[in-house]
Amino acid sequence: MPKINRYVDIDTVEREAKKDYIDRHSPFIHCAATAKKGDKFAVIVKVGNEYSHPDDFDHYIANISLYSSETLVARADYVAGTLGGQGAKGQLEVTFNIVPTASKLNLVAHSYCTKHGLWESDPVVVEVTE
Amino acid sequence: MPKINRYVDIDTVEREAKKDYIDRHSPFIHCAATAKKGDKFAVIVKVGNEYSHPDDFDHYIANISLYSSETLVARADYVAGTLGGQGAKGQLEVTFNIVPTASKLNLVAHSYCTKHGLWESDPVVVEVTE
Amino acid sequence: MPKINRYVDIDTVEREAKKDYIDRHSPFIHCAATAKKGDKFAVIVKVGNEYSHPDDFDHYIANISLYSSETLVARADYVAGTLGGQGAKGQLEVTFNIVPTASKLNLVAHSYCTKHGLWESDPVVVEVTE
Amino acid sequence: MPKINRYVDIDTVEREAKKDYIDRHSPFIHCAATAKKGDKFAVIVKVGNEYSHPDDFDHYIANISLYSSETLVARADYVAGTLGGQGAKGQLEVTFNIVPTASKLNLVAHSYCTKHGLWESDPVVVEVTE
Q1: Which residues in D lie closer than 8 A to residue A82 (C-beta atoms)?
Q2: Where are the domains of chain A?
Q3: Is A31 on the interface with D (CB under 8 A)?
């Protein structure tokens, strides 16, 4: 409360509408499996994998947050219209470039839909080498 | 992951350091028990009740979010220094004035500490009358 | 570019529609003329003084920022619906409580309308005494 | 007030320290010269071109905003530590992917340094074709 919805593998979901609902709201983290300490490392967060979310004034993805363990790494905020606006659909996508210093990143992303609340990605572990 | 720490009544906690730790990180919602539909309604969110949090550059409360059920109502962001800066302690406090339209508000606040992550308040239910 | 619209005294403006346009978009800072160093000091930022702004999905005030000289003190973000939602009008209002350490605050607020961009308040100088 | 510092071509600046100061604070927009209406279009905003900014707790780039004309497209917020943390330097970089619908984008980026305030990029015009 607020509930944080967590992604579940949509291959395990039967109803098409539910697959769509879960997938289009969930943030997905795309990045390399390993990073080099002190080097720039790109973390892409994309909302939706196989499905797309509306970009309507009263129903859009308003922000994306990226955490590493308990730490907020970065957050991107949007108003409606970034993905084509009223009537359009799309997958919100942001690339945060970070420079890791710890030996491991435990990345998790959150996205916030103005109608359906908070969603959490699957975690992604990145090994950071010297 | 990120863990969301939830407030627990510190009267049930024995160790002084733990009482302090929990209290100073937790957001507390202060508002009237009832609101009038269409009228301005003040919701104060204050971080810490009996204890105060540092406002150091490397350790401060960076944001406060207010949700009603699954909906983000407002969020306030800060940089270090709002409460006196390096060496000072304080209770971050923001008043969001909202105009309720639903028949009930289910308020929950989150605060984010740059060292100790996300914290969630006790929920507060407000009856909204016509 | 983006243009920052600045408040002008609407008593100097003739056309009613223009008075309304300027007033309802402008943030106004309300606070005491003096503060005490190290004590909590309330700064209210209210968008609109004599006029009110729509809270429609495609036209609302999305954020309020408070600066002291070049420093960002705090920022509040909103989605549409805080002031009654579609069809309603209101004056967005937030109270930031800060603890001043400098001998003077040079406060300026910005507000952002999703249709009419950035607006800047009149500056407010606060003397901070020991 | 707050002053918005604007990038000036550092080739016209003589003092090395001033070149560094201007360059490391200024956001630079990198994107294609033309976009296709309805297609994803990547806008990279990078703070610093030839010089790098500290990522210290008391001195870092806290946010990047992207505007198209008067409209806020997206904003990214950071806490200190994204670029390697205390003692490290770097160029904060975010990629916002947007879907243009207008016939032209008039992009401008702002960055905010916790010590040296607001900085504005050179504008970038993007032609959007059908």
Answers
A1: 73-74, 96, 98-99
A2: 4-129
A3: no
ipTM comes to 0.95
**To 10 degrees, the CA torsion angle through C20, C26, C30, C34?**
-130
Distance, first Cα to last Cα, chain C: 41
Q: Whole-structure pTM over 0.90, yes or no? A: yes
Nearest CA in chain A to D36: A84
Q: Which residues of A touch D84 (CB under 8 A)?
A: 38, 99, 101
Contact B101/C at CB under 8 A = yes
The per-residue pLDDT for range C26-65, each reduced to its tens digit, is: 999 999 999 999 999 999 999 999 999 999 999 999 999 9
Chain D touched by C67 (CB under 8 Å): yes
Between CA C71 and CA A97 the distance in angstroms is 25
B123 to chain A: closest CA residue: A1
Q: What is the pLDDT of residues D59-101, one digit of tens each?
A: 999 999 999 999 999 999 999 999 999 999 999 999 999 999 9
Query: Is residue D122 scored above 70 in pLDDT?
Result: yes
> Is the predicted pLDDT of residue B3 greater than 90, yes or no?
no
CB contacts of C57 in chain A (<8 Å) are: 57-58, 80
Q: What is the pLDDT of residue B43?
A: 98
Given CATH 2.60.200.30, say whether it is the number of domain C4-129. Answer: no
